[in-house]
Amino acid sequence: MTNYCGYMGKVVLLDVSERKAENYIWTDLDREKYIGGKAMASKILYDNLSGKEKAFDPENLIVIATGPLTGTGAPSSNRFDVSSLSPLTGITSSSNCGGNFGHYLKKAGLDALIIRGKCEKPTWVEIENGEFRFHDAAELWGMKVSETQKALQKALDAAHGRSVRCGMVAIGPAGENLVRYASVMSGERAAGRAGMGAVFGSKNLKAITAAGDTIPSVYDKDKAAAHHKKWVQAIRSHPLTGEQLPKLGTAGLVSSMQVHGLLSTRNYAKGQFEGFEAVSGEALAEELNLSNNGCLSCPIRCSRRVPVDGKPVKGPELETLGLLGGNIENADLEQICRWNYELDELGMDTISTAGTLAWAMEANEKGLWKTGLTFGQTEGLSQVFEDIAHRRGIGDELAEGSKRLSEKYGGKEFAIHSKGMELAAYEPRRAVGQGLGYAVANRGGCHLNGGYLVVLEGLGLNVNGQTPRGKADLCMVMQDLMEAISMGGQCLFTSYGVFPAFLLKNPNGALAKTVNAVIPYLGPAVRVLNKLPEIACFNLPLLPYPCELSYTTGMKMNIGKFIRCGERSYNVERAVNARFGVSAENDKLPKRLTDMPQDPKRPNTRVPLEQMKKTYYRARGWEKNGLPSEKKLRRLGIR
Ligand code: SF4
User: Fold this and answer.
1) Does the domain at residues 431-635 carry the CATH identifier 1.10.599.10?
2) Does the pLDDT at position 500 exceed 90?
């Protein structure tokens, strides 16, 4: 139970070996400290994993967590997180998803579900108004994602004698066959990263459905409604959230990345792709986009619908366009749309699949691993993806990811990963703050968990991407801010609205130039805010999140407390990963990005990682080994 609104007041630990559900104690003090979503999941993993577990052990936990804003009508607030020990990285990780499962999990009466154990045989679990039912999934095993979802809906409708409105998470063949980067799918949306689908597979868990009649209460309905209205207006009138994302989707970034040398090309050997126009957001909008789509309660609707075999399906995001485009030297947009669909159907992360493929192409070219996979040669790749998902032939090896392959065959310097997770599509040698973020990110090569500084370094603002000045502090504050936004259940794209519109509308104006020049010097100010967030004991219209949490939950939230929650989340995730061996040694990038300039004539077009790392640890108040001290953990109330 809880005294706070927005929550259902119930977290359940489901032991699938024993088929037993019990309430997990999660107090209001925990809610104040960790709010929900990924932060909540990290604390649960911190409290329950010793550091000895492996991803596929029955003792590993899966935590599916929602935020207090989910289901309350707050803008873009229906995202949920799937967290676990990752088979790709061997450390804890989290994957955020825009599907409808979080919304329905709350309707079923739960804020979060923790899964432990292993089903004896393939199983799917039904949750209805807090009740759990186990079903045989033998007939579903082997099915692709949409076929599974249809079969589940049919089974539910038949069992209940009516059409059941529900949310689902399901895996495809990749998860069943323990592909280390298998995804969990909710509708067409993916919790794509870090192999959460393979953890489901290791537990013989094909799917979970959730349905029910409960809805979260809102603490101050009038204030919350007025706040939503104003916020939606601001989102709709902002150049990024109101124009670029609805018009071009995330794909709209391809062209800016090309201009700034940030578009991963030929396995990150280059930052610009000659054929970029053919795979840009503009081309997608003009040639293939059938309509815009979006997650529940989202006014931005950044997702695309494209035709594949005459059927409208989810279109590719920027990551997929970049990594299955220039990064393998492919300029066939229709082909990327088809692969995107096929990978979703197989339940496989497009980023890690594409990153592993690019490594294999280069390894083949260099004679390290002769597979016939070649840059620019795209024929037969659909079959390769099927083979990965079913672990057949070379697919069995590709299913291990680029880190393990480079350890076996050589070519570590061009295996583009951090902590075992393949990087997103932003080439960081022209945005060194993003490079730092990739290296220090708790979950590995993730642009978002890394602080997404590229949005300051060319994709939103125009801060010098080559200077390391100020980047460590900015990386820290951006990481904490994004952690905090995600905790409530909101989409990180809403944070684009934080950037003042006038800077984006007139990027070459004197004011924008001055702001861009000043930002790298803000490090000391950022550090003071991090040390003493209590000084920010107020709210500002520019940052609507703390107010939203206050109106919804009844917590007294302000900017300082909000950022502190984000910092706590980042530290608890680091602390649990320390048990699995993470330290400064693991905060690294492949030599291609740190030692080899993107432009041989400009030696600074590389990521000066070691220099920035030291400053980053100092800013975070971590030890030289890159870990939070006991004192730090106590100060944050984690211990
Ligand atoms: S901005 Fe895009 S990803 Fe985010 S909630 Fe909206 S539709 Fe989903």
Assistant:
1) yes
2) no
